[in-house]
Amino acid sequence: MTVWDVPIGALIGFAAGTLSGLFGVGGGIVTTPAVQYLLGATPIQAVATPLPIIFPTALAGAYSYRKAGEVDTRAAAWAAGPGVLGTVAGAALTDVVNADVLLLITAVLLGWVAIHVARGRQVRVREQLATPAWQFGAVGLAAGFVSGLLGVGGGIVMVPAFTALLGMPLKRALGTSLLVISVLAIPGTIVHAALGHINWAIFLVVTLGVIPGARLGARIALGARERALRIAVGSFLLCVAVVYGASELGYVLMGRG
Questions:
Q1: Do residues 140 and 161 make contact, with C-beta atoms less than 8 angstroms apart?
Q2: Which of 54, 55, 112, 140 has the fewest CB neighbours in a 10 Å radius?
Q3: Which domain covers residue 43, as residue numbers?
Q4: What value does the mean pLDDT take over residues 81-105?
Q5: What is the tally of structural domains in the chain?
Q6: Eight-class DSSP state of 166
Q7: For position 245, what pLDDT does the model report?
Q8: What residues contact residue 33 under an 8 Å CB cut-off, 6+ apart?
Q9: How far apart are CA 1 and CA 189, in angstroms?
Q10: Other CB atoms within 10 Å distance of the CB of residue 247
Q11: pLDDT tens, 190-209?
């Protein structure tokens, strides 16, 4: 790593952090390709190194939402445990389940929910104390499973599930998702660290930017009007769905997996 890689890494972290705080995701959609192509990480390092980066990123964003009263700690507590189990199970089944087909199905569902979120046709917002704890656990389990199996952020599952299925206000769903994501990153970090897959120098320089980025992204989201935020979040999720769906459809048609 050269001296010029430090500001580049910090800028990557700032972009990933802003995306994380704004949309309630881990930020790996930015860090994984960026550290490989801009910082020279190997493919396995590009997959593994964003995991420890997610922890401070998600916590910083969650802290900002928490100060604004937009984190449901009860939901996060019930989702975190099953989410960790789902992450482990998903990772263990990587070589068994046809991930291409599963991600294609996930992309279709995500696209439908993204349009649902953007158009504002959500279910009636409920008092979260009235939501059975097992429903939060089920969302955490699903998000963890998809994250562990496909290597994608659990936030793309949790945010739409919390809002469209459980009737959680959007800003609270973003903050709660970030808190759960910070926990989901721990088991993967431990495994990849033990295997020597994490480039800790890249981790350090990228982390310089993620915390201020996450705080900024959260501040923008918290200050946005509900309608504008719903359009932004829905559009982001729809873009993710289209990119994943198009790439995986090609793989399925070509018979990969």
A1: no
A2: 112
A3: 5-253
A4: 77
A5: 1
A6: T
A7: 75
A8: 46
A9: 22
A10: 14
A11: 888 888 889 999 999 999 99
